[in-house]
Amino acid sequence: MAVFERLAHLCSATESSLSSNLFLSPPFHSFTIFLLELSSSPIPPLLSPSPSFTPIEKTFNFDIPVNDPEKDAFSIYYGDQQVIIGGFVLFFPNYSTFLGKPGFYVEDLFVRECYRRKGFGKMLLSAVAKQAVKMGYGRVEWVVLDWNVNAITFYEQMGAKVLPEWRICRLTGDALQAYQNANV
Amino acid sequence: MAVFERLAHLCSATESSLSSNLFLSPPFHSFTIFLLELSSSPIPPLLSPSPSFTPIEKTFNFDIPVNDPEKDAFSIYYGDQQVIIGGFVLFFPNYSTFLGKPGFYVEDLFVRECYRRKGFGKMLLSAVAKQAVKMGYGRVEWVVLDWNVNAITFYEQMGAKVLPEWRICRLTGDALQAYQNANV
């Protein structure tokens, strides 16, 4: 995704930085990931299902087989059954004082290239929206680059509005570190 | 704040909606508020201090007394001592897969009108930045309306950058509720 957004020079995540901050808390109350798991036969039920979420299952029929050159690198095994990770959505709660309600903020929505244009992105984002409704939350929000016309069209088709007036402010790097010893 | 942003028609928070979602978890790991408490004499220490945060104290000298017509409505009492709430900042953790690190997202920064232009806004936002550095977080982010030139200047003076290309996407109201029974 960083490459697509022309922002790879800003991407400094590592396996250890990811694992030290993710997968530490129950779903929905902090950083949460829905994984897109793909298999040509039904995926067996989880051995330790989460009490707060039932995996969503859906059958897709493809006209032609998908050629996934990185299939093995993105596979996990449920017993003997190979399951391919096709994408993910990472989201977490946010809060609106206007609504007086929490919502979800979607940080990343990603489908691996060979699985695009098949409805998986819509499935992942819809799953977040459905969970937000289930929890009584008031909004689902995310950001998009203003030149990414395809993404904007896709989001608008899903019912989202692009807000023209708001801009993101970011304090990071040395400018943030300067506050370490600030006499606040 | 809703009035200033010309968005009062979108503001539907109530006392009960606020209290049912805020003040429920320890600071910093979910929705967190720093309150600006003002008093003409030193504020006594908390009876139950938080192990994760020491209140920041600062002495300000005003040239002329502040006329606060809503003083009593915004007061709390520490024993006999009247303490005025002058503003607040509401923030919560976010997560960047680019950095592989959490950050803080600032939802609201508000100083009551009669206490503005005295450095309190800077104090509140700096306190969030300082806490982010303390926790090893990578960013502090918030949003601003593109016509709010005074706010943008203030934020830039604090070291923040305004990102020109990103736009917020929002799924809310009926468009969100439509996902309740969606066949995801």
TrEMBL record, chains A, B:
<dbReference type="InterPro" id="IPR000182">
    <property type="entry name" value="GNAT_dom"/>
</dbReference>
<dbReference type="GO" id="GO:0008080">
    <property type="term" value="F:N-acetyltransferase activity"/>
</dbReference>
<keyword id="KW-0012">Acyltransferase</keyword>
<keyword id="KW-0808">Transferase</keyword>
<dbReference type="Pfam" id="PF00583">
    <property type="entry name" value="Acetyltransf_1"/>
</dbReference>
<dbReference type="InterPro" id="IPR016181">
    <property type="entry name" value="Acyl_CoA_acyltransferase"/>
</dbReference>
<feature type="domain" description="N-acetyltransferase">
    <location>
        <begin position="33"/>
        <end position="183"/>
    </location>
</feature>
<protein>
    <recommendedName>
        <fullName>N-acetyltransferase domain-containing protein</fullName>
    </recommendedName>
</protein>
<dbReference type="InterPro" id="IPR051016">
    <property type="entry name" value="Diverse_Substrate_AcTransf"/>
</dbReference>
